[in-house]
Amino acid sequence: MTHAIRFHQTGGPEVLRWEAVDVGAPAAGEVTVRHHAIGLNYIDTYHRSGLYPVPLPSGLGLEGAGVVEAVGEGVTEVVPGDRVAYAGGPLGAYAESRKLPAHRVVKLPAAISFEQGAAMMLQGLTAQYLLRRTYRVQPGDTVLIHAAAGGVGLIACQWAKALGATVIGTVGSDAKAELARAHGCDHPIVYTRENFTERVREITGGAGVPVVYDSIGKDTFMDSLRCLRPLGMMVLFGAASGPVPPFDLNLLNTLGSLYVTRPGIAAYTAKREDLVAMANELFDVVDSGAVRIEINQRYALKDAAQAHRDLEARRTTGSTILLP
């Protein structure tokens, strides 16, 4: 028997339970991974709270790194003993070991530690598709990244800077502003005392930005639209403050024929060749030193509820991992 965090009803962090589970042997096309580290991501709180409904009872977590213990029939991607990491479904990463489809795991380069792998896969792959595919950042672009001191934010700021962009980022405190600045954010805006729309217009000489990367949702969405230049793209990839309410689409025309998209990692990594290519690009920018993975919080896996409390209270910065 092994242990995992599971929940039988939606709600606050208190619904998370530490339970004994029987992993069993991997079926055809599956692998069993013994975790060395597990990633904590904001989307985990959406599953737990019911914002993103899942069948119950359920495991939790989308990201981990460890060693392949066993493979099912027909698996050719990895062999027992391989160091691997993964991000994306199915749920169940909050576990000492688990089974998952073999096509979802990628081999972890020797230069990348288990802790780095668990801390960067979901957030790093998210930054990859945001910057390289959803809106392909070009040298000379000025971009706005909300939650610039968060896990995705710190990676995206560094990566955008390495691509030759000028980076504007919103943060909630002076300490987070300094953290973002140290990771490539040219213009951190402390939103608790500054109007970020006005500041973006000031920084860009009134022109606005070609793209906004917004993981906050309800509280920032409408003002983010007003930061865009004509034909700009609003990229909504999260809802930390709640879902965006319905609005009149004609507003997009009024503000300059804007684009709005709601991307997700599942679609971008649905094909294994895309997943592997994205992961390799992520590994390369980390290995080169262009992007540093900041693991600023570590919790025991069985203390996942406290990790959720701290994450939702915005007491965390950078990446957070759970240790079995």
Describe the overall structure.
The protein starts with a strand and ends with a strand. The strands form three sheets. Strands 3, 5, 6, 7, 8, 15 and 16 form a seven-stranded mixed beta sheet that branches. It has helices at residues 42-49, 114-134, 151-162, 174-181, 196-203, 221-225, 250-254, 265-268, 272-287, 304-312; strands at residues 2-7, 17-21, 30-40, 58-59, 63-71, 83-87, 97-101, 105-107, 142-145, 166-171, 187-190, 209-214, 228-236, 259-261, 295-300, 319-323. Strand 10, helix 4 (174-181) and strand 11 (187-190) form a beta-alpha-beta unit. The protein contains ten helices and 16 strands. Helix content is 30%, strand content 27%. The chain has two domains: 2-121 and 272-323, Medium-chain alcohol dehydrogenases, catalytic domain (Quinone Oxidoreductase, Chain A, domain 1, Alpha-Beta Complex); 139-262, NAD(P)-binding Rossmann-like Domain (Rossmann fold), CATH 3.40.50. The protein is of the alpha/beta class and 324 residues long. It holds the Pfam family ADH_zinc_N. It comes from Aromatoleum toluolicum. One of its GO terms (molecular function) is quinone reductase (NADPH) activity. Its EC number is 1.6.5.5. Residues 11-322 form the Enoyl reductase (ER) domain.
Query: Helix count, per DSSP?
Result: 10
Write the CATH fold name of the largest domain: Quinone Oxidoreductase, Chain A, domain 1
**Percent helix among the residues?**
25-40%
What is the succession of H and E elements? EEEHEEEEEHEHEHEHEHEHEHHEHE
- By CATH reckoning, the class of the largest domain would read Alpha Beta
Q: What does the largest sheet look like?
A: 7 strands, mixed
Quote the distance from N terminus to C terminus.
14 Å
CATH architecture of the largest domain: Alpha-Beta Complex
What is the strand tally?
16
In the predicted model, the low-confidence regions spanning at least 5 consecutive residues are: none
Keywords: NADP, Oxidoreductase
EC number: 1.6.5.5
InterPro entries: ADH-like_C (IPR013149), ADH-like_N (IPR013154), ER (IPR020843), GroES-like_sf (IPR011032), NAD(P)-bd_dom_sf (IPR036291), QOR-like (IPR047618), Quin_OxRdtase/zeta-crystal_CS (IPR002364)
GO molecular function: quinone reductase (NADPH) activity
